[in-house]
Amino acid sequence: MMEFDLAPMCVAARAAAGQLAAMPTARKADGLRAAADMVRNRAAAILEANAQDMARAEQGGLTDALLDRLRLDTGRIDAMAQGIEAVAALADPVGQRIDRSERPNGLVLDRVRVPIGVIGIIFESRPNVTADAAALCVMAGNAAILRGGSEARASNAAIHLAFVTGLESAGLPRDAVQLVPTTDRAAVGAMLAAAGAIDLIVPRGGKSLVARVQADARVPVLAHLDGICHSYVDAAADPARARAIVVDAKLRRTGICGATETLLIDRALPDPYTIVAALLEAGCELRGDADAQAIDARIGVATAQDWDTEYLAPILSVAMVDGVGGAIAHIARHSSHHTDAIVTEDAATAERFLTDVDSAIVMWNASTQFADGGEFGLGAEIGIATGRLHARGPVALEGLTTYKWLVRGTGQVRG
Amino acid sequence: MMEFDLAPMCVAARAAAGQLAAMPTARKADGLRAAADMVRNRAAAILEANAQDMARAEQGGLTDALLDRLRLDTGRIDAMAQGIEAVAALADPVGQRIDRSERPNGLVLDRVRVPIGVIGIIFESRPNVTADAAALCVMAGNAAILRGGSEARASNAAIHLAFVTGLESAGLPRDAVQLVPTTDRAAVGAMLAAAGAIDLIVPRGGKSLVARVQADARVPVLAHLDGICHSYVDAAADPARARAIVVDAKLRRTGICGATETLLIDRALPDPYTIVAALLEAGCELRGDADAQAIDARIGVATAQDWDTEYLAPILSVAMVDGVGGAIAHIARHSSHHTDAIVTEDAATAERFLTDVDSAIVMWNASTQFADGGEFGLGAEIGIATGRLHARGPVALEGLTTYKWLVRGTGQVRG
């Protein structure tokens, strides 16, 4: 077995981060465009590597869903290159002034955004994360240390090689993006323990990966473990709007973290049946509390566990609640603080919900499926965070920066 | 020995935090003013408790410095009450809109500041921290769980009792501020392990406390371990200004984290002697590298360890460097990323230093002793952070908040 030492990678990353931190926006963008070009130019080599991974995965009996995530084709490679180019076109947060104040003694204080430093990305089967996460880190002036899953190791290596060759051709440091050269699980442990050497870890993958990272990391983590999202239909909801929102929130794509998993219905809603019927007719299994079951015989029984379950499937738990207060209380108990929505025409009720629901994203008259950095206009996202510090909700370039205080004086002493 | 269970305190804190999060600014401020009044009204009881702590501490042989930190008198109690009132007068960050955007589909996105939730404060001998930290937490809408040191246990209990009695008299939840009822060290361990129940830990105390908290916490921590601050005198510095700044930065108070610990002198500085002489004459011990020792025979020898030492005393290490580039390189190796300053009349050199030095606070022509929330106009500070996430430098009310996304729609579905 290969001996793996993370420390030299961290030292190289820190040095690269120092160069990137001081680099003008145009140079970073040029570097990323060169990386995108190189990914396209080396499509054949990337596809060949991917074919090795696919062959091994098929022998290993991976599920069709996992095989699909792993598979690359020229369309997907081009999409990856376009993704890098899209990041290169984003506004650069580095150097932005957050605020300025002048003190009575004449000191002028600015808070300006600066890169975080060294970001560790730990991800699973989708090899496109290699390019995607690396591009976001570099554009925000950070060095990235990537650790991909073993299934995609050849694909990741080929994409990484193309990416850094492109960066280097444009004069950026090759160590701006490093790929951990082993898929040994101990490498993940080393990254999670690297407090001071890695400044932030972003896990991208399934729940067991995220849970392990959150449990073991000695380095700050941005992530969400669950997306137990709620849609609440208030008595004052417009019926057609409520039906359209709820069906979209649950069923547009059931496998994403912003999909609604629990429908809360105000007991005072005049006609809950049409919403329930629309869901059932669209093929959704419903599991309700006793009162919800009374709406339609096709609604099954929800157990206590259902209220805390992220189905990621066409299954929805349904609870009847006493108005917006009841909805807020249910959400406080069961939400994963990702995204929760209210449907109502009553602005005061909506504002109460927006204020009192303590989630990263709270919506009024919109589908929870909009919980996405692209939909939020952030251009791309490194992930969605449900923790309470640093950044919440979709995290993009700004979330990959921190700030420092610049104090300009004219000889002031505290005396 | 008393069995201590943190969990019920965390549950009570979470409930109180929910009430505080939705509370208007005026009610929080009223609560804090009532707490300040009660601290003044109960001064006799607080002093009696403090006398018990002092008696025990004197028997226990505490140093004079520690005894002074522990000691309360009516002046100090009044200062504590004034500190609470000052926090009550600060602008409330909760509900502030950070930004707004409208998407092409008509969704309107606001990011608004909200409290973090439950904050754990772990502190040592100074009993005034009880009131001070509690006031900041409450004003930012957070519940606080305080754990003070055993030396001050009677004082802390008396101050806490007065504080929460005041809060309650104004209709605020008593559990907004709880004091851990044991000074057993295991209580600290329980707080550090309480991920999900406590959202943030702020240690206030000596280096060994901070080091333990940083090493063991499973909860995010805002803190600084060291304040190894540098002042760099560039060749283009004004001599009189440089002398005044350096003497103040080192000697105004030597025991604070913003005190300069290393002086960097540009080899091209025409007259380094006057600065060195001013420091020596003011009673400062200097330890220099070989070139620095050549300036004056009274400069002693700096060992490798001196460059990484926070003296907190009238001792200063002195290194000669090759211009601003040499200063930046020295700082990158040895700074604790707290506060570093340049003295120069050359604006371009200053801007290079401000950009390239990666510390929470970077100063130009000012004393590093200004590194303080009060001096920064923040009104008060819960501490100074040298980590890279969430908040850097002096942390006050804004640093005790996070944000959420509010999305207002008119029936948008992702479709």
Automatic annotation (TrEMBL), chains A, B:
InterPro entries: Ald_DH/histidinol_DH (IPR016161), Ald_DH_C (IPR016163), Ald_DH_N (IPR016162), Aldehyde_DH_dom (IPR015590), G-glutamylP_reductase_CS (IPR020593), Glu-5-SA_DH (IPR012134), GPR_dom (IPR000965). Its EC number is 1.2.1.41. PROSITE patterns: PROA (PS01223). Its main location: cytoplasm. Pathway: Amino-acid biosynthesis; L-proline biosynthesis; L-glutamate 5-semialdehyde from L-glutamate: step 2/2. It catalyses: L-glutamate 5-semialdehyde + phosphate + NADP(+) = L-glutamyl 5-phosphate + NADPH + H(+). It holds the Pfam family Aldedh. Keywords: Amino-acid biosynthesis, Cytoplasm, NADP, Oxidoreductase, Proline biosynthesis. Gene3D superfamilies: Aldehyde Dehydrogenase, Chain A, domain 1, Aldehyde Dehydrogenase, Chain A, domain 2. GO terms for molecular function: glutamate-5-semialdehyde dehydrogenase activity. SUPFAM superfamilies: ALDH-like. Residues 9-282 form the Aldehyde dehydrogenase domain. It is found in: Cytoplasm. The keyword Phosphoprotein does not apply. The keyword Cytoplasm applies. NCBIfam families: PRK00197.1 (NF001221), proA (TIGR00407). HAMAP family: ProA. Catalyzes the NADPH-dependent reduction of L-glutamate 5-phosphate into L-glutamate 5-semialdehyde and phosphate. The product spontaneously undergoes cyclization to form 1-pyrroline-5-carboxylate. Belongs to the gamma-glutamyl phosphate reductase family. This is Gamma-glutamyl phosphate reductase. It comes from Sphingomonas japonica.
